Amino acid sequence: MIAVIQRILESSVTIDGNIFSSTKKGLLVYLGVRKGDEEKNSDKLAQKISDLRIFEDEKGLMNLSVKDVKGEIMVISQFTLCTDNGKSGNRPSFIFAEEPEKANLLYERFNESLRNFYNKDKIKTGVFAARMLVKSINDGPVTIILEK
């Protein structure tokens, strides 16, 4: 699994012209599920993200987690993170992305793990495989890439 995590002031997901979900201060997580990923990958990555200290404390140091600041987390399934970067050419290949059915199960498992590690009411999502418009206001900007 691969996740791109952004510290944000707010985010929203629009599907078919309607806002599906939105958050205030917290994290925006783009999650890619790779072939061979397992439930344990979901659990470990969810715990790591919920404990990731990328929010500033009173001294301006990144010492606080999303839990510490009582922020929200928006999770968006993003198979395009699973590209084959070793090939020549300009068209990306997504051969490392998991098959949609299994990827959706692991995406849902990841979201459930986040709800268990943090707070179920603070976790928002998009819709797996939907065409989504994602808006965010990055804070910093701070962007972290994690893999499990």
Topology:
Elements (H helix, E strand, L loop, with lengths): L1 E14 L2 E6 L2 E7 L6 H13 L3 E2 L5 E3 L7 E6 L22 H18 L5 E3 L7 E15 L1
Helix pairs in contact: 1-2
Molecular structure report:
With 148 residues, this protein is of the alpha/beta class. It has a single domain, classed as 3-Layer(bba) Sandwich (D-tyrosyl-trna(Tyr) Deacylase, Chain: A), CATH 3.50.80.10. The protein is built from two helices and eight strands. The strands form two sheets. Strands 1, 2, 3, 6, 7 and 8 form a six-stranded mixed beta sheet that branches. Strands 4-5 form a two-stranded antiparallel ribbon. Strand 4 (55-56) and strand 5 (62-64) form a beta hairpin. The longest helix has 18 residues, at 100-117.
